[in-house]
Structure formats: structure tokens, C-alpha cells
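hiii so um. not sure if this is the right channel but i have a protein structure encoded as C-alpha cells and i wanna go backwards to a sequence. like what aa goes where. can anyone help
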């Protein structure tokens, strides 16, 4: 079971990483195009090298149309895609200044409690994301510039959120088991063979 959970969490994270890399390239291309377009309209270039400035202006170089819409949809998916691996490895931000001095047994119970709370929150977010998906699909809402259906982004995020929910529930079960039995690590589940 653990291998399957780890494999699906890693696969989702890799997919999220690929999407995030594509978004970075898209953003760089858009910024470069916008900069070249601004340069082509600069009074200095228009007066000094008029032919080159005119050629740049007529080439159609500019920002990528709808880059913000694609960025918004892609980042939402990437966030949900990284949640499972983060959950599995216990990589969420923690403040353990006060709990470091507590006995390991108490720390196990605290970690199990917060793991259950986080699992419940992730499941709740997934449920509400599904409600949003249904709403966007029913109304046929589209983005302003590219006119692609908004529900596509919701569907991609929902698929990643389902994986996050499964991993979160699995991690919560493992943490509770570790707290009750006293076996297992108080750290990441992803690297162990529990």
C-alpha cells in the first residue's frame, strides 16, 4: 500500500513540476515579448533606427495573449499537485519550538492530531473544489481572453486534490497508528516502510 501511495504522490508532483516549468517558460517568453514590444515603440529606437523599429512593430512581437489566465489555472493545479508529496514527507511548515522539549510519546500524539486535522481540511477543500467545478461547468463560464472553460482548471485541480486527499487520509492513519503503538518515526512517512 505504501509503495502505491508513494508512487502516486511522486507522479502527481512530477506532473505538477512539468506544469510549473511550462508556466515559467511561458512567463519568460511573455515578459521578453512585452519588453521587445516596448523597446520597438521607444522614441529613441524609432528615431535612430526607424526601419528596425518598424520591422519589430510589424512582426507582432509582444506578450503572450492570455498569459495571466494560463498562469492562474496552471499554478492552481501545481499547488494541488505538490500537496500529496509534501504531505507524505511531512514537509509542511511546522513550529516546534515548544514541542521539542516534550517527550517523544506526547509529540507522536500531537503529530497524529494535527495530521488528522490537516487530512480533514484537505478533504474539505477537495469537496468544495468539486462543488466549484460543478458550478463552473453548469454555467459554462469561460476566461476573458482565451475563452477556455474555467471548469477545465477546476477539473485538473480537483484530480490533484483527490490524490492529496487519499495521501492525507493515509498519512493520518499512519500517524495515529504510530502514536498508538509507539512504533515508527515522528518524522516523514514517505521515506519509511510503514
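sure thing!! here u go:
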Amino acid at each position: 500500500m505504501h509503495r502505491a501511495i508513494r508512487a502516486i504522490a511522486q507522479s502527481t508532483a512530477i506532473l505538477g513540476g512539468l506544469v510549473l516549468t511550462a508556466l515559467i517558460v511561458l512567463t519568460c517568453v511573455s515578459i521578453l515579448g512585452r519588453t521587445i514590444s516596448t523597446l520597438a515603440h521607444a522614441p529613441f529606437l524609432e528615431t535612430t533606427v526607424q526601419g528596425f523599429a518598424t520591422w519589430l512593430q510589424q512582426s507582432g512581437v509582444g506578450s503572450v495573449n492570455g498569459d495571466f489566465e494560463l498562469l492562474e489555472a496552471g499554478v492552481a493545479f501545481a499547488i494541488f499537485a505538490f500537496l500529496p508529496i509534501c504531505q507524505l514527507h511531512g514537509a509542511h511548515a511546522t513550529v516546534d519550538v515548544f514541542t521539542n522539549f516534550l517527550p517523544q510519546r506526547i509529540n507522536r500524539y500531537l503529530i497524529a492530531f494535527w495530521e488528522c486535522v490537516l487530512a480533514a481540511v484537505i478533504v474539505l477543500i477537495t469537496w468544495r473544489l468539486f462543488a466549484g467545478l460543478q458550478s463552473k461547468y453548469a454555467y459554462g463560464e469561460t476566461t476573458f481572453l482565451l475563452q477556455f472553460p474555467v471548469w477545465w482548471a477546476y477539473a485538473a485541480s480537483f484530480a490533484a486534490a483527490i490524490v492529496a486527499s487519499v495521501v492525507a487520509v493515509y498519512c493520518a492513519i499512519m500517524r495515529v497508528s504510530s502514536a498508538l503503538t509507539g512504533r515508527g518515526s515522528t518524522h516523514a512517512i514517505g521515506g519509511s516502510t510503514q
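oh and The chain has one domain: 2-181.
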